[in-house]
Amino acid sequence: MTRPRVCGLDLSLTASGVAGANWARTVASSGHRDDSFLARGTRLHRLAGGVVALVGRCDLAVVEGPAYSRTTGSVWDRAGLWWLVVDALMSRGIPVAVVAPTARAKYATGRGNASKAAVVAAVRRTYRVPVADDNQADAFTLAAMGLDWLGEALVEVPAGQRCALDHVAWPATAGPAQLALDGGAVPYLDTVEPVRRPRRPAPVAVPDLGPCPGQLDALAVVE
Fold first, then answer.
1. Is residue 196 part of a domain?
2. Which residues lie closer than 8 Å to 109 by C-beta, 6 or more apart?
């Protein structure tokens, strides 16, 4: 049985980290505070497209969730990027897990409030992976969490760190059977019933019945 392909995603407007079991990459982008809405939207779509293209086809995507405490001016655009990527992944039939930043830090270091630098150092030390920066380190940690959840841990993680898996929003339908990770011929996409949007009922034509009894003719009143 081959190892499932799991991708970790640490989404950012400037440098999104994407990683797998033995690799890590960065998708860079740049913008300006005075960009128009059209320019901002175009940038988000291009960035999301680059991230999704790098992910390709995988069995599980593990995405870092929003940091709700952040209140900078770019929070609106970050939310837009997050949903563009997540929606694109799910539309391709890829299960998505969402990990809070604190859970990601705890899995990597044992402390939920660990700094970015501490996570980078822990990833390099534990997995011997040459991650370039904190974006790649975060993404690699997310991928490692997904593999661990599927029973394919890259290394043996201490219980004090592994308990972070209990605080992840894992996809309800994911798991070895549904993901066809046992070498079955049925891919995940074919095992999930598509969401069917209800059709809007056709408008009902209302016949013209003329004025109601007792209805006044406005023009007659004016005259």
1. yes
2. 118, 119, 122, 161
If we measure between CA atoms, which residue out of 136, 42, 145 comes closest to residue 97?
A: 145
The pLDDT of residue 34 is 77
- Order of strands across the sheet with 24-28? 24-28, 15-19, 6-10, 60-64, 96-99
Token pair, residue 195, equals: 């969401």
Secondary-structure breakdown of the chain: helix, strand, coil percentages, each rounded to the nearest 5: 40, 10, 50
The confidence score (pLDDT) of residue 198 equals 36
Number of domains in the chain: 1
Q: Which domain holds residue 175?
A: 6-201
Residue 29 lies in a domain: yes
Which residues does residue 97 pair with via DSSP β-bridges, in sequence order? 62
CATH number at residue 160: 3.30.420.10
207 in a structural domain: no
Give CA–CA dist 113/216, Å, rounded: 73
- Cβ-Cβ contacts under 8 Å for 107 (sequence gap 6 or more): 141, 144, 145, 157, 161, 162, 164, 165
Q: Is residue 222 part of a domain?
A: no
Model pTM score: 0.75
